[in-house]
Amino acid sequence: MGEGTGIDLIGIDLIGIDLIGIDLYGIEMVYKFYTFLIHDIIKDIFLYHLHIDLVI
Predict the structure, then answer these.
(1) For the residues 11-35, what does the mean pLDDT come to?
(2) Are 35 and 44 in contact (CB under 8 A)?
(3) Which of 5, 12, 16, 39 has the fewest C-beta atoms under 10 angstroms from its C-beta?
(4) Measured in Å, how far apart are the chain's first and last C-alpha atoms?
(5) How far is Cα 20 from Cα 36, in angstroms, rounded to an integer?
(6) Which domain of life is it from (predicted)?
């Protein structure tokens, strides 16, 4: 995983959220916020619990 994972039509990439993407389908910012939180939690699990620093 890393940069260049691709962005789909609704501005969310394959590993989480595209913070600067255009929301073509009117998805609520709340949804994007929670998607970002989930992505951040996953990174924290890998970094702090498994001691793996994922570049995502």
Answers:
(1) 59
(2) no
(3) 5
(4) 6
(5) 12
(6) Bacteria
29 compared with 21, residue with greater pLDDT? 29
Q: How far apart are CA 38 and CA 44, in angstroms?
A: 10
Which residue has 């789909």 as its token pair?
A: 8
Pull the structure tokens for residue 32.
């994007």
Encoding tokens for residue 12?
Answer: 């969310």
Which two structure tokens, joined as six digits, stand for 46?
Answer: 């890998």
Cβ neighbors of 48 (< 8 A, separation 6 or more) are: none
pTM exceeding the 0.85 threshold for the entire prediction: no
The mean pLDDT value of the chain amounts to 62
Rounded (to 5) percent helix, strand, coil in the chain: 40, 5, 60
